[in-house]
Amino acid sequence: MRPSGRTTDTLREISIETNVTKHAEGSCLIKCGDTHVLCTASLEGRVPPWIKGSGLGWVTAEYGMLPRATTTRNRREAAAGKQSGRTQEIQRLIGRSLRAGVDRVALGERQITIDCDVIQADGGTRCASITGGWVALRLAVNKLLKAGDIKEDPLTDHVAAVSCGIYAGQPVLDLDYAEDSEAGTDANFVMTGSRGLIEIQSSAEGATFSRDEFNALLDLAEKGVDDLVAAQKAAVA
Q1: Which residues are annotated as a binding site for phosphate?
Q2: Which of 29, 41, 193, 198 could be stapled to 136 by a disulfide with Cβ–Cβ 3.0 to 4.6 Å?
Q3: What pLDDT, in 10s, does the model give residues 126-173?
Q4: Per the annotation, where are the binding residues?
């Protein structure tokens, strides 16, 4: 039995509330069980210097956790004077994951920055950030299309992410913290709505896992991403 009482192939309850901030061109609050992330998309009429003049757009991301997103207070990274290696790794993952679903020629020479701020953490914050980040990106792109600033939709597919793992000897979908902290194997799958693989992060946490177990995790991830994409579609409809 999972601590939450869920079956092995069941996501935590998903909620995506859109347009939750006044100024951002796209925003949503995504809740995956007790993991809550505020995602905003900001449009800028510039691109990084290394692609200036190329005609290509850029999508990037920043990620952070509020001090009391977890059971004990974490010091603000700004107070420490630098971002942790974990933060840098996650925001790079979010950025490259979302770019995988973008036609940068169609986007034109502009940048969209996705900010993902974890309000409450109970495992899977990077996956929730990617899934919610796509919704914020979709809303921002809709504004560009409505204004006539771009002629064709640069978003080629949905992008969503989910965690899977081996918990108590069984492959399970969408780990919460209680499972993640005890899992023998932990994996994050980033996929498109058409089940194209973007990135897999997988590691054994004490015992190795077999090819068959990995295949079982991938099967669970495909089901989970299907459900997340359905939630994205409902949110932006």
Answers
A1: 86, 124-126
A2: 41
A3: 999 999 999 999 999 999 999 999 999 999 999 999 999 999 999 999
A4: 86, 124-126
C-alpha dihedral sign at 178, 184, 188, 191: negative
β-pair type (58-65, 35-44): unpaired
Q: Measured between alpha carbons, how far is residue 17 from residues 127, 155, 214 in Å?
A: 17, 20, 33
CA gap 235, 160 in Å, rounded? 13
Ranges assigned E (strand) in 92-220: 111-120, 159-167, 170-173, 185-192, 197-204
What is the Cα gyration radius of the chain?
18
Q: pTM score, two decimals?
A: 0.97
Place of tokens 């800028």: 44
Cα–Cα distance measured from residue 73 to residue 97, given in angstroms and rounded to the nearest whole number: 29
Q: Is 20 helix (H, G, I), strand (E, B) or coil?
A: coil
Answer for the pair 35, 121: CB distance below 8 angstroms, yes or no. yes
Give the H/E segment covering residue 140.
Answer: helix 125-147
Contacts (Cβ under 8 Å, ≥6 apart) of 25: 41, 42, 43, 112, 139, 140, 143
